[in-house]
Amino acid sequence: MPPRFFLASPWVRAASPWVYFTRPFQNWIETDGFAGNIRLDGNSPPTYLFMDMIDSLSPDDSGSAPALEPMAMVALDAGRMLMEAGANANSIDEIVTKVARGLGADRVDLRIGYASLAITIGIGANGITRMREVGHLGVNQRLDQELWHLAARVSRGELNVDQTRAELTRLAAKTPRHSAWVMAVAVGLACAAFGRLLKVDWAGTGPVFLAAGIGQFARRELLGRHTNVFVCAAFVAFLSSLLGGLGAHLLHSETVTVAMIASILLLVPGIPCVNAQSDILDGHPTLGSARAVTVAVLLIFVAAGLWLAQVVVERTVGI
Amino acid sequence: MDLTYLFHPEPAHPLFFFLHQIICGAVAAMGFGVLFNISFRSLPWCALTGGLALAVRSYCLSYLGWNLEGSSFAAALIVSSAVVVLRTHVKVSQNALDVVGCIPMVPGKFAAQAILGMFALTSTDPDHATETLTVAVQYTLRVMFTIGAIGTGLAIPALMRRVRVSR
User: Fold this and answer.
1) Mean pLDDT to the nearest integer, A53-69
2) Would you say the pTM of this structure is higher than 0.90?
3) What is the helix (H) or strand (E) element at residue A122, kind and residue range?
4) Cβ <8 Å between A144 and B93
5) Is the ipTM of this complex over 0.90?
6) Which of A27, A52, B1, B17 is deepest in the core (most CB within 10 A)?
7) How far is residue B9 from each of residues A102, A250, B12, measured CA to CA in Å?
8) Coil/strand/helix, residue A107
9) Could B37 and A141 be called an inter-chain contact, meaning their C-beta atoms sit closer than 8 Å?
């Protein structure tokens, strides 16, 4: 009697006529019950291993298929991080597919929602469907780039599931961000330049710079404390436009109203707005419309903050 | 030498006005690039796209006499095509570079005035209700058309390049 590992090796199984005889029936045996249950051993009577137990499977136990569960979760995590870094549906689809196929999946199907991702991956006759929640959709280009590099490495077969997971964890923790000061100065400069494009006079440009910088500080602080995004936007709009308007008035600017508007342009949701359109054009109308509605509601909150600041400025300095 | 004309809201010399628009577009694009966490090494590319966008838009607006929507469309189309051409050299996703370049063209003033006009209409006794409504609707439409034009201009080159692979 040859040793068990020899009988279990794929070549021996492929060479055995028994496999060809039973293959037509395997399809219904393996998809019997609900999809995702993995049969332990191809030759014994069907023994199902239910989903909760899949974590404890080592790849050898599930016959020829490596464990699908960790593969699906790692691919979903890559997609989730990319989505939270501000990617559009097409990129997420591409990355998740690359990662899952690189880790060994034969079939990958992804559903991208606004707040969740669902994936079905399969190897041979086995397949599972898993879902993962997506958090706040921000913008982080460096993380986006790192994820593309990682996906390229995975698709070349350089990393296995555990290494990919470790790499994702490292990226989530270690990808550098610009410091709060750099961001405040950059956003201040951007809004001041934006103000010049909207024909704010030079006296109003300095206050716009300061107000937008302070607004960016406040936004970072509030979002760090997990304040609701919409409330945060309304507050920052109020603060920045109030400071911008009062400052421009004090410096005798003739374009106080436009200076107030320029101070809140840091809140323009540019990436979600363009993603909404590109998602609809790429055939993801549900995600695209969800993004568009979010953008519209965000703009209403920003306008509410601006309106309140205008009322305050009118009452205090009477413009 | 009298330099006061440089600080006039509407710069007198057309060339100076043109340069002013380009520099402001570049600075705004770089600022938003930092906000999007683009690395310092890639920021010059952001400045380039922002400057290019504003150059094209200003040229179409002032020299060709186009309206804002058409000019924004042309600028977005050219920026997006440039980004497609440059994509192998720049370590930033194409999507982000497009957006960063086009953000300085977002009609923020119109958007704010449109929404504030709507707010003004809902007060109990609005003055000049018809005029306020007309102006607010005009602004709203201009904002929608301009943003739509920018979005379409950005999407076209990327869509043309992409081949959808069925799995």
Assistant:
1) 56
2) no
3) strand A116-123
4) yes
5) no
6) B17
7) 57, 18, 9
8) strand
9) yes
Contact A85, A177 (CB under 8 A): no
Tokens of A139: 């913008």
Question: Is the Cα torsion angle B140, B115, A272, B94 positive or negative in sign?
Answer: positive
Rounded to whole angstroms, the Cα distance separating B83 from B86 reads 5
Residue A251 gets the label, from left (phi > 0), alpha (psi -120 to 50) or beta, of: alpha
SS3 of A119, please? strand
pLDDT tens per residue, range A259-300? 999 999 999 888 888 889 889 988 899 999 999 999 999 988
State how far the Cα of B166 lies from the Cα of A70, in Å rounded to an integer.
Answer: 25
Q: Are the CB atoms for B60 and B30 separated by under 8 Å?
A: no
- Contacts A–B by Cβ distance under 8 A: 158
CB A115 within 8 A of CB A134: yes
Domain ranges of chain A: 68-174, 180-317
Q: Which residue has the tokens 């600028």?
A: B75
Q: What is the dihedral sign for C-alpha A303, A304, A305, A309?
A: positive
* Closest of B6, B9, B101 to residue B56, by C-alpha: B101
**B93 Cβ under 8 Å from any chain A Cβ:** yes
